[in-house]
Model the fold of this input.
Amino acid sequence: MTEGSDFGVLRFACEGSGTMLGASLTAPASTTQSALSNGFMVGCWGLAALSFGEWLNGHAGPGILLAVGVELALGLGFFQTRRVSVELETAG
Done:
């Protein structure tokens, strides 16, 4: 595969994920929405751990730490949103 086709696959995956998560934001709270949120959160934290491991092993440069920070922030954002929605469900 050429570099251009790799970018196309990555762009397609990002657009698909964004569409899926954007559509779930407007849906009423459900187990499907919770599963999407949990899956994305675990995926972000897994990618952060793998990326940090690659940096520790010397397979990636210091620029990967920016990606690790973004992945951790996204995972924490989804965790915070999940926690707040659970609190609202139990209060209401």
